[in-house]
Design goal:
The complex is a heterodimer of chains A (121) and B (585). With 121 residues, chain A is α/β, with parallel strands linked by helices. Chain A is 45% helix and 21% strand. Chain A starts with a strand and ends with a helix. Classes of the chains: A alpha/beta (121), B alpha+beta (585).
Chain lengths: 121, 585
């Protein structure tokens, strides 16, 4: 069983992704912003974080910096999921040791689960 | 005896008379001769001055003028050699024209004497080696061992400054008396006067041009063909961050521009190939520039076009770059906001299409999701359309008398559910004197209320309170006194100056106990593109931020005001006014 933490303020995304991920293979935990994300992180110790960038209270990049400070850079696999396609965010994420990124509207649920499988292999 | 005396007296008298007459006649002849000489000299003077005038024209080239003078001088002054010395930036130029052949020592002697008088005039030491010599006319003959016996020096003065000396010299002695010298002085003076006054005109024009160049916002640098800087304005110094440095050379530009622009190479192309150049944008000291390089052409007296140097212009495009960035950011923000609901719709449909539905899920759940996401997207598209209408001035308001209390009640019932969900109390208080029929655009005011109430709910933590108050504000009354009557606790008093000039109006205020807004952000809240700047200040606030800009457009369309009073971590009050008797627009 692998634990996945989805930090995203887009409720539809969380709901549809949770419904797609095989409950026999994954435990999914979600948070609607970065602050909540830090709490869930503490509680659940996930194997993978799906992280949105634009969120209220605490944004994705700030969340990532705090996670790196606390748990060490690259200790937890992170996939950035955003509807932004600005290179700036991606390169900033790369510097913070993320495993990959995708634009949510450009990927199907199937494509996303395939990517998750690859990262967790 | 008496006869003899008489005769001899007569003879004496006649002798005396004839002697007197003779003397007189001689004197008269002298006068005439002198006059003739005077006249002929004057004629010469006039002739030479006219010739000078014609040939010099409007030249400012001192050497050219002196050349003309020296070539005309032999008409009325005798000399073996006429020569002049002019100061050049690095050397002294010595040019001698020989009317007759002389010994080499004659030349050297004249040259040395001229150099020492130039030194005396300027109170400077000149190195004999630093003289550039040009000889013309008759040839040097070593057998003619005649020394300099007559020599006359005239300083060349332009605009009260000694620029050189002119000399006539001969092997014969006793030449160059006062008369000839007076003429020479006059000629030199005349030429100097012409050049000085012409230079005066040029100086005034130059002052105008340089004042213009100095005050230009674009950086301007002009160089000669050897890349020496002739003109540079403060803006050009700012480009390379050398505002304070007095003497700027091309190397300051080469060093500071680095690889951003090959100024030397571009100037070379300009000067040698007469090519113009326009650069790509580049960044220097946190500013953006586009540079242009042009050859500077002059047309000489012979109508030949010559490239005299090059000019580099640094055009500051920082503002354009910023605007472009704002537009790009705005576009990417809109794309982001559209992609989010679209992605939701796409994912929900993907699940609906699956033959095997995930356990514990119902199709209705996904249909609801599609409905919600598409509604959200529709709102966004409407906001974008409204913003576009506002920008193009095509935003229309249609007023009809309506009851504001009813409109507020309607909105409150709409938001009540989500307020209760988040344990936020949503209270309304309407002043007793609020008229039942106030002319306003119901749909548009509903839109404003939606925006203000949803924002208040969004930024208020659980257990907080949002209150909506409506009251009549009389012209000149205090808005805070009005508010106190409504019994609403304000996190920050309303800015009275905003209300001071209002006519009798209906005021609606939405007060929350939320996070509040920093004062530096408040002025930007209501402007369309500024939301982006807010994002950099509060990076993770979702939404397009168009809502408040549209609200402002709607309220201003009604002839009212909209604003905010806020205190960080205490809360905010967003208010707007609607004039009770609006002037039709």
């Amino acid at each position: 069983m692998k634990k996945i933490l989805i930090v995203d303020d887009d409720a539809s995304f969380i709901e549809t992704l949770k419904a797609t991920l095989d409950p026999k293979k994954f435990i999914t935990v979600s948070a609607a912003d970065g602050e909540e994300g830090l709490k869930r992180m503490e509680e659940s110790k996930p194997d993978l974080i799906l992280l949105d960038i634009k969120m209220p209270k605490l944004g994705g990049m700030e969340f990532l910096k705090r996670v790196n400070e606390k748990y060490g850079e690259g200790k937890t696999a992170v996939l950035i999921t955003s509807n932004l396609s600005g290179l700036e965010q991606i390169s900033e994420g790369m510097e913070l040791g993320i495993r990959g990124y995708f634009v949510k509207s450009n990927e199907s649920l199937k494509g996303i689960t395939d990517m998750i499988d690859r990262v967790l292999e | 005896m008496t006869t003899i005396i008489l005769l001899s007296t007569l003879a004496l008298l006649s002798l005396g008379l004839s002697a007197f007459l003779l003397l007189k006649e001689h004197q008269a002849k002298d006068v005439v001769q002198k006059r003739e000489q005077d006249i002929s000299r004057r004629m010469y003077e006039l002739a030479i001055l006219k010739e000078l005038g014609d040939r010099v024209g409007y030249s400012l080239d001192v050497q050219q003028i002196v050349d003309i003078i020296t070539s005309s001088l032999h008409q009325f002054i005798e000399y073996a050699a006429v020569s002049y010395m002019l100061l050049e930036p690095e050397k002294v130029m010595f040019k001698m024209h020989l009317e007759r052949s002389v010994h080499r020592r004659f030349v050297v002697d004249v040259r040395d004497r001229m150099l020492s008088s130039l030194g005396a005039l300027l109170d400077r030491e000149f190195d004999k080696k630093n003289v550039r010599e040009i000889l013309s006319g008759a040839i040097i003959i070593e057998e003619l061992e005649e020394p300099v016996r007559s020599f006359f020096n005239i300083p060349l003065v332009i605009d009260e400054k000694v620029v050189g000396v002119l000399t006539v010299a001969d092997t014969k002695s006793g030449l160059y008396k006062e008369e000839e010298m007076t003429i020479l002085y006059k000629i030199i003076q005349q030429a100097s006067k012409a050049v000085t006054s012409l230079q005066g005109v040029v100086k005034t024009e130059q002052a105008k041009v340089s004042a213009m160049v100095e005050s230009m916002e674009d950086g301007v640098v002009m160089t000669d063909a050897d890349y020496r800087i002739l003109v540079i304005n403060p803006a050009a110094k700012r480009v390379i961050g050398q505002e304070k440095k007095a003497e700027i050379t091309i190397f300051d530009f080469i060093d500071n521009l680095g690889g951003k622009m090959d100024i030397r190479g571009r100037l070379e192309e300009s000067v040698k190939l007469k090519k113009s150049y326009m650069s790509e944008r580049f960044e220097m000291k946190e500013k953006f520039y586009q540079s242009f390089v042009f050859p500077v052409k002059t047309t000489s007296s012979l109508n030949v076009e010559e490239v005299f140097g090059g000019v580099v212009i640094f055009h500051d495009v920082t503002r354009e770059v910023e605007l472009e960035r704002v537009r790009d950011d705005f576009t990417s923000m809109i794309v982001h906001e559209l992609r989010t609901p679209l992605s939701g719709i796409q994912k929900a449909s993907e699940l609906l299409k699956k033959p095997r539905k995930p356990a514990g899920s119902s199709p209705k759940q996904y249909v609801d999701m599609i409905y919600q996401n598409s509604s959200g997207m529709l709102d966004l598209v409407n906001d974008i359309l409204d913003a576009a209408k506002l920008q193009s001035g095509k935003f229309e308001i249609s007023r009809e008398p309506a009851d504001i209390a009813e409109v507020i009640a309607n909105r409150v019932s709409f938001f009540n559910l989500s307020a209760t969900d988040r344990k936020i109390t949503l209270a309304v208080s309407v002043g007793e004197n609020v008229p039942k029929a106030v002319p306003f655009d119901i749909q548009r005011i509903k839109q404003v209320l939606n925006n203000l109430i949803s924002n208040a709910l969004k930024f208020t933590p659980e257990g907080g309170a949002v209150s909506i108050s409506a009251f009549v504000h009389e012209h000149g009354a205090s808005a805070n006194t009005d508010m106190r009557k409504m019994k609403v606790q304000l996190p920050e008093p309303l800015p009275e100056d905003q209300f001071a000039s209002l006519p009798q109006s209906l005021v609606i205020a939405v007060t929350d106990t939320g996070m509040g807004i920093k004062s530096e952000q408040m002025s930007q809240l209501f402007s369309k593109f500024k939301q982006l700047d807010n994002q950099s200040l509060v990076p993770n606030i979702k939404g397009t931020g168009l809502g408040l800009a549209i609200a402002k457009g709607i309220i201003e369309g009604h002839g009212g005001i909209i604003g905010v009073a806020s205190k960080v971590s205490a809360g905010s009050t967003f208010y707007f006014s609607l004039p009770l008797s609006p002037t039709q627009t």
